[in-house]
Amino acid sequence: MEKQLANPAPLGLLGFGMTTILLNIHNMGFFPISAVILSMGIFYGGIAQVIAGIISYKRGNIFAATAFTSYGFFWMTLVAIWMLPSTGNEFAAATPAPFLGCYLAIWGTFTALMWYGTWGGSKVQQFIFLSLTILFYLLAIEKCTGIESITPIAGTIGVICGSSAFYLGMAELLEEVKGERVLPY
Question: More exposed terminus of the chain, fewer Cβ within 10 Å: N or C?
């Protein structure tokens, strides 16, 4: 008898949620980008989500597989965008703000379409994807226009988005552990 794979959603949601919260505390202006955000972006927001996506794929859940692997690789590319310029490689120059805005807008569009995929499902999941769509577009607008006052607003939305993912991850984890729904979602 083949052993059933565990639900990877709590791992993916917590990796996404906690990393998103930390980055957006920075966006709100409380802390600079540091090893905390870079490390979380590579390992928990990045690698852990990719693992959750691969397990979701093996379980036959194409939506979760696409979401977790995509956002896991988002985190890793974001960290690379920040870190590669320090290598001195001429092809790894700092990204101009408007081009970073394009990067964020593409992620916003992807997320808006993923949000559509949540309709009919969990209200918390719908909220996560809607708030993430708004976050990406606000950050894209800030990068394209240079209106820096947008960033703390986006950061507040990001903390709310990440907290929602954290909540859903814990709700699904506790439901599996306790064998009953503990937190509504």
Answer: N
Angle (CA) 37-40-44 rounded to 5° is: 160
Longest dimension (CA), the chain: 59
Which token pair is 46?
A: 């990045």
- For residue 10, give Cα distances in angstroms to 50, 140, 155, 174: 13, 28, 23, 9
Answer whether residue 3 shows pLDDT above 80.
no
Distance CA 9, CA 49 (A): 9
pLDDT tens digits for 45-102? Answer: 999 999 999 999 999 999 999 999 999 999 999 999 999 999 999 999 999 999 999 9
**Neighbour count for residue 76 (Cβ, 10 Å):** 18
- 168: closest CA among 54, 68, 30? 68
Are 125 and 118 a contacting pair, CB within 8 Å?
yes
Burial 44-75 (b: 16+ CB within 10 A, else e): bbbbbbbbbbbbbbebebeebbbbbbbbbebb
Please state, in angstroms and rounded to a whole number, the distance separating the CA atoms of residues 185 and 175. 11
Q: Give, as one character, the DSSP assignment of residue 120.
A: T
HSE of 63, CA atoms in CB hemisphere, 13 A: 13
